Amino acid sequence: MRILAVDDDPIILDLLGLALSNSPYNDFELTSSSEEALQLLEESEDPFECFLLDIRMPGMDGIELCKRIREYPEYDQTPIIMVTRLDHRNYLERAIMAGASDYVVKPFEGPEVIMRIELAEVRRLLMPHERMSKPFLVPSELCNIAQGRVSEAFPLKGVSNFFNLQDMTYRLMDLPMFTQMTFLGLKVTNAPNLHAQLSREKFQNVMGKVGKAAAGALQNKPFMMSHHGNGILSIVIATNKLLSHRRLGASINQAFRNIPRDTQARPHVVIASSGPPKHVPKSERVVRLRRTLKSVRQMSEKPEAEQLTDW
Fold it and tell me: Fewest CB within a 10 Å sphere: which of 68, 115, 236, 298?
């Protein structure tokens, strides 16, 4: 599924890109204005199959953009998901009249965005002849369908310096430009097995213990941590001191050595690192975080974590 996301807020746009790149829907384009979006529609050889549109944008807003998209015959049945803030819900009625299919409320978590796209895709496959401009609005509260999946990005309770992805991204962008930082991706390689064998509460407890073990090993360093589901954590360390990610991975796994290997609740962790601390321009920070997460997801269970090549 090819997706076009439009938002004038660069951080929200980065978050959407991060959510999509960490999902099966990794064929996407990002743009910051309605005018650029319409130009992409004209120039693109391959049609888009889903749109994520911010409602409030300078110039042409998302509602007018939605209306313009519906004027293209090839996009008559294409899902259009509006992205809005809680205090902008009064705009939803206008968006529906313009042809919107669904909506996501800011602040959002990546899995909720993916769930909306999944619902739109299922609807398109099951009802191929139904106009997607007829709204299929599901209250955000009902998106708890994601709960219970291994992909659920639940908060890690009791873990110091833990933030949801959106808050961590804003804090990452707020760090001074001269800050040196290292990006880490942590993966519990046997998360799918743990999730299948344990109750939801026990699985969350195991992931919380992994987060606490990582936080404990980093207690003397300024860091931020977030959970992305599928047993994956991201960690940003803001220091000029070199960190051995191999020692960090060994330290976390050591915390669970007292649990027999054949016990259901014993996690195994691998870590990917962006390399030595570096000054990272604000425009590249989310990109580096995205690359780290992509790399750690490709790692399998190994005795030691492997460091990424420098970018």
Answer: 298
CB atoms within 10 A of CB 137: 13
Q: Give Cβ neighbours of residue 195 (< 8 Å, ≥ 6 apart).
A: 150, 203, 231
Residues 6+ apart with CB under 8 A from 270: 186, 187, 189, 249, 296, 299, 300, 301, 302, 304, 305, 306
pLDDT attached to residue 114:
87
pTM of the model: 0.62
Bridge partners for 185 per DSSP: 234, 272
Any residues with CB less than 8 A from the CB of 247 and at least 6 apart, and which?
none
> 275's torsion region: left (phi>0), alpha (psi -120 to 50) or beta?
left
Same domain, 222 and 136: no
Q: How many domains does the chain have?
A: 2
Q: What is the pLDDT of residues 186-222, one digit of tens each?
A: 999 999 999 998 998 999 999 999 999 999 998 788 9
Identity (one letter) of the amino acid at 11? I
Residues 138 and 25 in one domain: yes
pLDDT value of residue 138: 46
Q: For residues 7 and 111, state if they share a domain.
A: yes
The 10s digit of each residue's pLDDT in 156-185 is 988 989 988 877 887 888 888 888 999 999
> Alpha-carbon distance 201 to 40, whole Å?
45
Q: How far apart are CA 261 and CA 258, in angstroms?
A: 9
CB 286 within 8 Å of CB 17: yes
Q: Are residues 9 and 52 in the same domain?
A: yes
* Residues comprising the chain, all counted: 311
HSE-CB for 74 with a 13 A CA cutoff: 9
The pLDDT of residue 162 is 93
* Whether residue 75 sits in one domain with residue 122: yes
The residue ranking higher by pLDDT, 65 or 145, is 65
Q: Does 206 reside within a domain?
A: yes
